[in-house]
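SAMPLE LOG
Freezer: B-3
Tube label: C17
Construct: single chain, 594 aa
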Amino acid sequence: MRISGLDSVIQRFHHPAVVVLAAALTAVQTLAEVPALLHHQGRVLVGGLVSDGPAGFKFALVSAGGGEVYWSNTADVSPADGEPDAGVTLQLNRGLYSVLLGDETLPHMAAIPPAVFDHSEMYLRVWFDPDGGGFVQLTPDQRVAAVGYALMAESVSDGAITAGKLAADALGSLPSDLSDLQTLVAEQAEQIAALQDQVATLTGDSGLVPGLVGASADGADAGLLGLGFERFGSLSAPGWVNASADGAPSARSGHTAVWAADVMIVWGGEISSGLPVASGAWYAPEADEWTPVSTIDPPAARSGHSAIWTGEVRIVWGGTSGGAFLDSGGSLSLHPQKWSPLPVGPAGRTGQVAVWTGDRVLVWGGRDLDGLLADGAAYDPEAGDWTVLTTEGSPPGARWGAVGVWADDRFLIWGGEGAGGPVGDGAVLLFDGSGQPDHWETLSKAGAPAARSGHSAVWAGGCLLVWGGRGAGGVLLGNGAAYDPATDVWEALPEEGAPSARTGHLALWTGTDMLVVSGETSAGVTPDGAAYNPAIGGWWSLSREGGPLPRTRATGIYTGTELALFGGTNASGQPVGALQRLVPQPIWYLYRKP
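STRUCTURE (predicted):
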């Protein structure tokens, strides 16, 4: 709905002429909205010239001749002369302006009640003030020639439409169309029922269609066999691959390996009994290349030490060398390579537990010349200092060869060798609200694994998985358990499909599975292994294709796609130097429904 404006000229004694060249009103109201909104546009000339900038306007909807005011943008109180008391400030752009009449978001703009549009004849009156000198009424008033249908629409009363209002043939073929539709629905229902009968005939009691193929890592999957499946083939798992030996570290044991974002760093260890080294190299799986670790100012040669990757540097600490227990260490930055010495830490030792919390290295336990230790310290790389770990609460007893993990916000320690042999207890170090070590609490013994040392542990993103090792009397163990720190509850791991009992093995967490590989069994040093998946609660065997080397006390890392294994000793006790890689996937056995 639009109205046209009429040209008019007015003159004020203190203002030049103001000319209204054009105006328009458009209803933008939708059905049943209150208040109404009218879109009004216009253009004014001041002294025959266009004007830019702010200007004042007043608006009213009035009767013919202006004798009755139906609406104004503000109240008309003082004086009650038909002119709104306050104006709306609008922006002129080359004399053009635009406004939504009734838009209450504008200062001094009142809503337009829908009842205003009940009047059959209505005019828009405008007052204009270009510079704050005072408002002048523009003449003549502009008639609102039509009102949008949406503004005048009303709801239809219930029962208002009767048969008499409809044309004789308005319904046409509707009754027969409805009858045809009902027939079609009945026919389709019969077809669906027939199809269901056919599916039931094909699938039998199992509900499975003949020819359906399934896969399992279990060569005798009881679930699939119980459903009537038959095994008909398998998909081999990838085999082991020998990495490049060019530039690789010499064969060794008692060394350490860490995964540093995209390279595996090997350092230290013994190349023969009692002969430690202070050398190493890092391996880049993508390039299959070794790069020597700097030998400029490295830490003293050692074995049985701890190594941590902080995300920026590789930290080495502790261990033994020539019968001495070392309290020294160093940090290695890679790009460029540079060794920096660590400050003297806690008493020198070997067999300690060491973890990275995200901002500190925590060290606990181990042994030195005087025997077993029950203390520890924290090293802060940013501050470059050591602080003694608290012994408040119930810390672990003195031991060496324990396992420990950083469990998101706490430090878990379990097992190891105590003064009387293997131990089967542990403790957790809790931290306060500021992230400082606070006190120790004892782990539950209910359902815990048997006492052991030489075992492994991984943090599986919610639980501690402990497996293998030697128990009392040197008995090799092939069992383990999962510990949930949130509930302080142990749950035994299944033994079916687990690796043979062993010690000196390697355990790594992939994000979905715990990989257990190599080690020493009752039959000797072994290359084999298996993976445990907590989600399904079962084990599957690692591939032995590709000639994996039998070894124990090896080190390894998981790259995100591959297991990489280096060093250790063979069945003769001689150091091993080969690095071997494996993509850990099960053999998939194929089953088919006959």
